[in-house]
Structure formats: C-alpha cells, structure tokens
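User: I'm putting together a teaching handout on how multi-component assemblies are represented. Below are the sequence lines for each component of a complex, exactly as they appear in our records. Could you produce the 3D structure of the whole assembly as structure tokens, so the students can see both representations side by side? Please keep the chain order the same as the input.
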Amino acid sequence: MTQSTTLVRTDIHEPQLRFWQRVTWRRKVVPWLFVLPILLINLIVVLGPAMAAFYYSLTEWNGIGTPRWIGLDNYRRMLTDDPSFVHAFRNNLLWLVFFLTIPMAMALIAASLLSPLKRGGLTFRLGLFLPYVLPSVVVAAIWRSLLHPDRGIPGKLTEWGVPGFDRALLGDASTVLPTIAFVDNWHFWGFLMVLFLAAMQNIPADLYEAARLDGASKIQEFRDITIPGIRPTLVFMVLMTSIWSFLTFDYIWVLTQGGPAGSSEVLSVLVFKNAFMNLQAGYASAIGLSMSALVGVVIGIFILLRKRGWEI
Amino acid sequence: MALKLAAGGIAVTGISFSPAVHAVAAQDAPSITFWLDITGGSDTAECLIDGVIKEYNDLGGIQVEVTMQANGWTATQTALAGGAGPDIVVTPGPSLSLALGKAGQVLDLSSYATTYAWAESFTPWALDLGKVEDQLVAIPNEIETLVLFYNKTLFEENGWTPPTTIDEMTALAQTISDAGIMPFAHSNAEWKGTNEWFVGEFLNHGAGPEKVYQALTGAIPWTDQAFVDALTVLDTYQQNGWFMGGLDRYYTTPSADATAALAYGEAAMKIEGTWLISDSMTFFTESGMEWEWVPMPSFDGSEIYDIGIGSTYSINANSTQADAAAEFLSAYFSAELQAQMVSHCGSPPAPVTIPADLLTDLDPRQARSIERLNAASAAGDYGYTTWTFWPPATETYLINEIERVWAGELTVTEYLQGIQDSFVAETAAGNVPPIPAR
Amino acid sequence: MGTLRRPMRSAKMLPNYVVLLLLTVFALGPLVILGFNSLKGTAEIGRNPLGFPRTFVWDNYPEAWRVGNFSTTVQNSGILVLVTVSGVLVLGGMAAYSLAKLNLPGSGPVMLYLLIGSSLPIQLFLVPLFFLWQSLGLVNNLFGLAFIYIAINAPLAIFLLRSYMVQLPADFEDAARIDGASEWKIFTQIVVPLSWPGFLTVGLVVSLAVWNEFLLATVFLTNQENFTVVTSYYNFTSRFSRDWGLTSAAAMMMVLPIIAIFLVLQRRFVEGLTQGGLKG
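Assistant: Of course. Below is the structure of the complete assembly, with chains in the same order as your input.
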C-alpha cells in the first residue's frame, strides 16, 4: 500500500501508460483488497461448508469415516420414513403461528400505548426491552424455577384454585411447546416493541390531530393511521419472525432438549441430535438443507407478493 | 489477512491442547497423560489425583499427568479425530471403545496383557468385553450394577418389607402410593439415559437374564412375549405416576431433588446404580433417616445383578509412550490401587479380584454390594445392562423411544419390534459388543 | 382551554400507564425474583421461593464465582468478544469502506452474497463446519471459534457501517486523495474517525451477540478450560440444580455487567439492534 503512495507522488512525470495502470490499480484492485479478507473468511465459514452440506446430504456419513454416496435416500427417509421429521416440522409451524400473533399483538399494543406518552416513556421502553439483552441460558434458568410445579408460579396458582397448573408444564407433552414459546416470547417481544415504537414515532403528529378533529375513535386511529404508518417495519418483522421460526433452537434445547418423548422437537433440534448424538451427519445435513429450503420459501413468498404489487 | 488469521489459529491449537503437551518430569522419567471425566461431579476425580495418582508419581518412575474434563468423552473424541488426545484414552463404555478399536484409533493391548498377566487378575469375562477380532483394545473399568434402594426408616415406620419379586414390588408400590407417598424417586431431567436403567432392569429381571442372553446372541427375537410382559409392567408403573408422582415430574425433576425426596421420606424406593452410594447418600446424613438396599426384585425372586461397565481404558494409537502407559495401567488395575480407590474415593471397582482385607473404611452396605456383585460375576450368573452390552444405535433407540411408549404413541410390542430391527441391522454391521458365554 | 387540556391529557393517558406498568412488571418481575433468590439459602428458597429474602446469604456470590469457575470463563468470553469485535470492526470496516466509498466493481453481487449468506441457517453449515474445524484442529480453540463469529457477524456489521459511511461528505477524502494519500490512510485517518459512532454501535451489538451465544459455543468448545460464561453456566445449573440460591447468584453475575452496559449505552444498543434486525 505504501508503494502506491510513492507512485502517486512521482507519477506526474510518468508516461500515460503508467498513469492508466495506476488508475486501474486504484480503481479496480484496491477496492477489492479492502473487501477480500472478510469475504474469504465468510466463504470458508459459510459458503464452503454450506456447499459441503449439500454433498453430505446425499451420503451416509457418521461424521468420522468416509461418506458413502446414497443419492436421495436421506431425503426419501426424511419425507416418507421419519415421523419425527414431520412432527418437528409441524412444531415449527405451530411456533410460527405463535410468534406471528402473540408477540406481534403485545408489541403493537405496548408501542401504541407508549408512543403518545410524554412522561416516563424512556423508563418503560428500557424496562420492557431489558429481557432481550439476557442470554438464553439465564432466561431459561429463571423460568425453569418460576415454572416449578410446587415452588413456582404454577404452585401459587393451584393454591389459589386455578385449574390446570398442578403439573410440570415443561414435562407434559400437551403443554411443553406453548410453555417454551411463552418463555422465548418473554425475552423477545420487547425487541419487537422497540422497533414498532421507533416506527410509530416517525408518523407525523398532524395525522392524528386531523383524525381527532374528524372524531375518529382510538381503534380507528390505530387501524387507519398507526398500522399503515409503520407498515414497512411491520412487514419486515413479519418476514424476519417467519424466518426465525424455522431456525429456532436455543430455548427448546436449553429447556427440554426436545422432550418429553420428542414432543417439543423442532427441525434444528433434529439436526443437532442426528449430527452430534446419533452420529448421522449425512442425514442431519439433509434436514439442515430442508431448513434452508423453508427459509427460501418464506423469502420467495415475500418477493412474489412484492412483485404482485403488494406494498411490502 | 484471512490466511494469516487461520495460521494464527492453528498455532494456538498446540497451546490449547496443553494437556497433551508433556511436562518434562524430573530425571527424564517418561510422562503420560490421562483425562478424567468429571461431568457428574469432581469429588472422585480430585480424590484420585490427590491420592493414588500422586503416590504413584512420588515413586519417581512414570509421571502421570491427569486433567479433569467435563464432557470428557466429547473432548476425547474430538482430540482423537484431530490426531491428538491423551496417552490413555477413557471411553464411557465398551460399545464406544469397540468403535475406536475398529477405527484403529487405539492400540492392541494383547502383548501387554501377556506381559502383565492381566488374564489372572481380571474377572474372566471382563477382558472379553474389550476385544475386537481377537485384539484387546480396551480394559473395562468401574463395574457397577443396579439395585433397589429404599428409605429404611420410612419402611420401618410403616411396617413395609422390601420386595423380592416384581409382583411384590408392584403390590408394595400400590400400598405406598395409597399412603400418599411416592413409591419411586426417579427422574431423567438431566440424564435422558436414565430411561435405559429401567428398560434394562425390567427386561433382565422380568424376563430373566437367560432370555436376554439369548436375545443378545440372536437366538430369540426381542419381541418375545416375556419381554413384552416385562416392559408392560414398567409402563404400568409410569402410567400410575409411581415414578416421582407423574410422567411430567419424571421428565422435569432435577436428579438431586429426586434423591433428596428419597432421603426425606417423600419417596420410598429408588432403582439406581451402586454409584448412588458414593454420589448422593449425603442427603441421608442431612435428613437423619437411614437407607438400605436389596437386589432389584425379579420375576421368580432369584437374586440377579445386572453387570455394567462404567468406563473403559485404552492406549492412544498416537501415543509415543505406549510402554509406559501400559505399565501404569497395570499398576492402576492392580488389586492394591483399586482397593485404595474404592475405599478412599468411593469409586466403583474395576472387574479385578480384590481381597476383602484390602477394603478398609468402607460402608458395610457398599462392601456388601461389591462382594455380591463380584460373586455373581465370578459365577457367570448375571444380567446385562443396556449401556454395556447393547450396540449404540439400538441403545439410543431404546432410550428415546420408550418415552413414546409412556406417551401412548407406541405399544410395547411396536417398541420391541423397533429394537429388534435396529439390533438385527447392527448385528450385521458388527456393532454388538462381544457377549461373554454364560 | 390551554390550561384545562394538560390535566385532561394526563388523565386520558391513565389507562396507558396502567397497562404499561403491568407489562413492565411482567418483564422485570422475573429478574427481581432472580435477584431475591440469589441472596437466599437453599432452605429458605424451599419455603419462600418467590418473595423477598428474610436472611441474606451474601456468600452465594463468592461461592458461585468459585464453583462456577467464573475467573476462567469470564476471561474466555472476554477473549472471544475482544477478538471477534476487533476482527469484525477492522475487516468489516474495510469492506464497508470499499462498498461505500471506493465504488467497488461488482459491489452488487458482493452485497447480494452477504445478504444471502446472512440468512442461511447455522444448522445448514454447522455439521460440515464442525468436521472441517475438527480436521484443522480448531475445535476447542477460542480463536477457532472467534474466526467463525467474525464470519457470521460480518454481513450485518458491513451493512450498518456502510450505511453510516455513505452519509459522510466526500470533501475530506477528495482533498486527501489530491494530496496523494493512500486509500488505507484515508480509511484509517479520515473515514474511521468520522464514523466512530457507527463503529461503537456495531461493536456493542456484536459484543452482546458473542457474549450470549450458545449453540456454536456448545458445539465448538467442549473442553472445560475453554467454556464461555454461557456454556459454563449451562453446565453449572444442572450440577447444582438443587441450590437455587447459588445458581441464581451465578446468573446475576452473568447478567449484571450486560445490564449495566445496556443502561449506560442503551440508545446505541437499541439503534444497532433495530437497524440490523438482529435476533439474539
């Protein structure tokens, strides 16, 4: 790099040819030199292994020995012969439904209540956002003790006569998934809220003034001004939340490892178990690839809708 | 830049695997490395290091450098694959050492076995478990069994007597449950593998070890009616909520809470390995109640002990100190050192003959368990724990899918059919550990 | 009218305050209980699992620090954060500079690649990456993991920094270029100082992501000496599951520094996270 500096200094007396070489260097080569290091690192870590995963998904491989080519067998097994895959996929869909409704609603309500406040707005924003910065293992530990069937909140509720809480919610196949989703949401929804709040504060105040003069109700204001006003953010977060719903891992792993009886398994948990516990790395790669495909489908739907003229 | 960083990373590896870097011992004595797993707690490991290992090193011969590892097996596996790892390779059981042997990652110990006459000191069947195609690739350690622990104080207060048959145990569990006490303190919240203790115990004790032997050697299928009946009883126990007061609690109660429930008389019994004695019986000191054990009841009342091997020891194929490692292993598995480890550190003994007079300061209940187990193993009259004698994929299936039986998604027969299918496939692949003849 | 409106408005806002207060209790209540429990002995937690401690067991903290091996794990997490953040800021900053200011030929495909790369699920490349790292001897190596963190956090950092740099006026750079300064010099001496708030934001966001990261740390660091605060705490909770006082104290020690930094720099935190749409 220092060399090019000297070139710059002396080039006034150089012939035209050298000048153009220098320009090419500076215009074409130098920009790439700045990008290459991080690009190479990313290629080594992400793209290379991702392509390898595609190859491994076509083999039987325990992760140590030589992979044995079996064509599409892993995919056939995944789609026709593995009830746990279907079950995990169904759980991912349930997860998607939960996260597109509960946190969205909570965040929208809280943000719209918070945005007109003159006093205390910052304090509320800080308080509601705080759980988001905590590590998943701590959140899980907090809630594991709060959800203890005797000593935690369910114990208190049972004491007060509320039915349905006299059991370990994380140990019961019918309650385990919503319980984990609840815990994850406790940590997550404040993040959504802050995003929506930021978007709402950009809506011009005179729109609300005008609506009030027209005698619009709070609900009408929310529906006709707030929602359209934050639409780009809302749509973006629906997209991101959908993608994350297919990738979710931490909370389920830390709280139940997919149990009991596989009832809280999602695709990422299956990948982990197959790769690192059952030593079926080839099959795990196939499931991992199916997760990418799902993410691709979500992104594809959004692109398609946008092309169809939806304002998203 | 990227290349530079990568190179930096590799250079650092040498340092981060420092356990494998040999410290230079005094007067050029060979030095060997050895990792002790401390996933369940480090008391025993600390005791071994400060006791027998230190004394051994003080002799001035071979210097043994021990590193404590949580998740020791994963760390070992990783290091071996990378061509590194300690001189002495410890695995959590024969099916894994079998895999290492097949992959050529550990040495054939046959010649050392001759040199040090291991055949004489070890229980006859034990060394067979470490063999792959006539090569001795691993030495089994930590012989253990499962028994029925019970809260003696609670039993005496209520006038209950410990059961000897499974039918008696079932009737007693009903009585205990009616008295508002949990019959069994069992949970798998921290260790999914807990499931297999019960599957294994009910198979061996409900159908008898002879049947299990026949199935393990392929003479009869796992779908035999005797096995179906045995696991149906286990399922009844779970459906009645006898394990920890319900399946939900079985899945979520921390294991220490379960042991505490037994110690404080909230639960009456516990089917668990003899390791429980050294690990957790301090809870009884806190509660002031008494514990005792009887053999796990069986269908006909006969006394059956299922043999389990908690770990195996091999020598790394990459070791530059194989001779020294073998010499140390020979000392480590001598009756004297084993007796010390059992007496002072509470570690389960290796399958070697330990004269009773060497076992000092031992809780009489523990001494009795070791004595009975040794007698059963010497006589060849024992049952089979799933983690020692089952091939790995079948064991995984057995642990995971039993939860589907308990959830009502699979029948016992379907579950056993699944075991059968997996077992047949693994027999064909040569993954079944060698089963000593009865 | 004007004087009447103010109390009217506040009164009208009362329901807002009530609902928000309830939500705040929901958000912070569990943390407060965690704080309470971190000061209780095991016996008291059994009798009084949710309330204010009756006797304070301050010993839980030094004890948890010792048993949880925090002196090592904090150091490990610190190294990971430090290496990753410097790597991301230096290399990501360079790339952002090139994309924002140098008119990189082929910048479109590069941006597209980074966008696609950042939406690939970790699970897809986790397995081959693990075995690649294993064969390179980079498993159980803090720098090996930091390398992965740099790669994964880079796209977001590049986008954020680029959008920051694009807004900078070109006057200074042009002047420097005419004076014959090299691009490296312009980058380090003009662009970086001018966009330091962007670097600070990215640094914070990446630090938080690395400090809290769980999946990769579990897979790539299995050796106890290399445990991070998070992985060590995960094992710690199962080892001392009965001693809630102790595990709560350990949890408090993990989160207090994050909370403190968050409160001091919350504006940057929120900004960075909202701009990037990042999930922890």
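A couple of points students might notice: The first helix of chain C runs from residue 2 to 12. DSSP finds 15 helices and no strands in chain C.
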